Give the backbone structure.
Amino acid sequence: MSAGPTEPLLSPELLARLESLELTTRKVLRGRLQGERRSRRKGHSVEFADFREYAPGDDLRFLDWNLYARLDRLFLKLHLDEEDLHFHALVDCSRSMDFGQPTKLDFAKRLAAALGVIGLLRADRVRVERLGAALTEATPILRGRGGMRRLLDHIGAMQPSDEGTSLLEGARRFAIRNRGTGIVVLITDLLDKHGFQAGLRALAARRVDLHVIHVLSRDEIEPAVRGDLRLVDCEDGATTEITSTDGLLARYRRTVAAFLDEARTFCAKSGINYVSALAEQPLEPLILKLLRRRGLVR
Amino acid sequence: MTLIDTMPWWGWSSLAAVPPAIVLLYFLKLRRRPVEVPSTLLWARTVEDLHVNSLWQRLKRNLLLLLQLIFLGLALFALLRPGTATESSETQRLIVLIDQSASMNARAGDGTRLDRAKLRAREIVDTMPSGSVAMVIAFSDRARVVQSYTDNRALLRRKIAELGPTSRPTRIADALQAASGLANPPQTYEEGNPNALKLAQALEAKLILLTDGGWQAPDDFALGNLEPIYEPIGTERPAENVGIVAFATAENPERSGEVQAFAQLLNSSPGERSVDLRLSFDGRVVDSRRDVRIGPGVTISLTFDVPRSIDDTVVDGVLELAITTADDLSDDDLARAVFGTRRRSRVLFVSPGNEPLEFAAATEELKRFAEIRFESPAYLETDDYRREASAGLLDLIVFDRCRPDESPAANACYVDSLPPETGWEFGETVEPLVLIDADQAHPLVEWLQFSEVLVAEGRTVTAPAGSRTLLRADAGGVMTITDRLGFRDLVLGFPIVVADDRGEQVPNTDWPRHPSFPMFVQNLIQVLGNAARLDAAETTRPGEPIELRSPAAYPELIVAGPDGTESRVPRNRRNGYLVTETDRQGIYVARGADDDRVVRRFAVNLTDRRESDLTVPREVKLGYQDVERGTARGIGRQEYWKWLLLLGLGVLAFEWSVYRRRAA
């Protein structure tokens, strides 16, 4: 149940709010191009950071000639580097995401768009792609306000697909396509029959600041099913027969809670930022409050 | 809690297949609704550990199936007829007495009291501890051992089921005798002899009385080894019944040619009842009474006048009195009487001449019911007499101062002579004979006064043992009657007239001048001449024998009952026909076997106060012991199957509502 093409991914009000935000990371990440971001790496911005003695091979342009005049020794002026941030948003487009009202995929797309826009506004290097996208699939790498249109178009065109739905496979493909570091935001429901751990571990092994936004729809947390049912998995067609009773539903809720807890615990242990979200919840407070608190945006 | 095996093994085994079949059908019919979900991951995890036995999980989680199985379980359990009884496991010996009398035909619930009693008897047989033996005795006015001691329940059940209703009155003595005979066998006893022989081992037994009362046990009955349990039948509600307890007809003494019918009606209901009555003569309604009110426990008498015949000609017919208001017992709502089939008795006087006797026997009244002939003593020597006397064609022969060589096949009256049998003797001649008193209890001399009668001379009569003196004089008995092989001989010790020297008749007594003489002659002809009183319609009770007399000497009669069944009745020595098959109420028709001519008709009516009284006594008296009503404990039981079925129905209704809610 994708959002209609007429409906914009991001409302103008939200866009206005996003203007004031920027993506942050606690890790030192090397960007290729100079961006608007102050890096902990010493660099070439106008902001002075420190001095250090000259070593052969240093750029002579950064010698502090005044000091050389006074002390007759060569010192290098070190400036704080202003760098760009590589921002990757990985949207799980498996069929399981195409559930809920609005669908989890809609939610994921809007969230990815919002985060991508924040990145673009701060001249970060933004790449939003489907999790498990084929290696040959072209995904735009965008930078600057001018890329906003393309970003939104690209995200809007994402459709649920059966391809590469395994989290591990998606992580591998991502690793092949992107060698750099940066922020990786994975928006997924983590409903992988093979387990989400291997995939997350593969992602976290890269030197990236990994955020997992765990999206579940309310129907998954509080299912409104009754009677004798044959549940059909929309991805692999596996069936599970249940006779829905209050007892079973309570048991299911416990399973969901355990699942969320398992994901949270795993992420905490693996240094992954974990945020669980409801597909039905509004985007704005999520970004403005929760993600800010988790240090993804500022 | 005990169970009763109500079905053979194949019944149970087919029932045992039902629960698995329901489970199977449940899974066959169960169509799970397919629902697409994002992932079955969480669901699979949820039911993972439940899937240890997924079949069991399904069963456990399904309310509908559970309810169906509960219902089935309850139904099966009900089939086992669970019940509680304070039952001892030791074997028992039961004697079940089932009342079969007319009052047991009273309505009780859906059926009759007899049905209830049979049902209860079945229950008792069903629930007796294994190894026990039971005996079934049915009783009405007689007792019948329906089944002697056996532990074969199927046989007992069949025999109980075969018991049918009767219209007979109740007499329990024989049944008690039969029951007691086994429990209290006779013993020989010799004082001081340790080896005194017991003929049979005394067997203790429970005596279960399934009856509605209406009987009285003989006073000398002793229970001995019998433990009585009185289970009254028909106690659910007080019975409503008005019954005809007496019905008789007689000619109206004031208006000749008119018949009066007398009826007594008893109301045994707890409250006043009003009934409608209809009297019909040969199917024609001749009288009816509406709203005859009878108080509770009250007996009322009614008299009906029936114009019977024109110019005094006997008209055949059946008079029928019916209570047309329905009540609990219909057997006593109808009574019948038959007219006009009375036979004339035939009397032969053998006398050398006896004017007063001839005069007294010549009344119009006597001529109506007796055919009287006079012969001289010389007739005794003829072949005609011998044939008449031996063939039993006569009812009464009066030998006046003469005697036959051998006793005739008829009743006989000897005046101043002795029967040829041994044992008869005359005493000394007494002059004069003073008569003192007569045996007022005997129909021959009742109401007769002899105190003023003078007798010139006479002799006392010594009779064989077992005779009865009817008239006593100062010197001893002068009129004696005795039985002789079904006939009766009456001997009078003094002559009425004697012949003087010239052969003239000279009175020996002034008795003929007293009113008692013609009355005595009439009684003689009525009682010994087998002539019942005029218009006293022949009637008997169900099961009681009746002796018919026939004007023609048929070797046997064919008696047709009200239902058309015929029985052949041979002539007995007394020239009578003893009809014993009188079980049904109604009109019986006797025909001559030779010419198919209707000889006699008679009515069989219940008219029994005890049977019409449907109240069930609180206790009964068996000998010296009062037996309160009770349930055969240890064999009686509280059954729960009805409650189980009700509960099952509730479960079914609940199951239905659950199903409807889910299907909606």
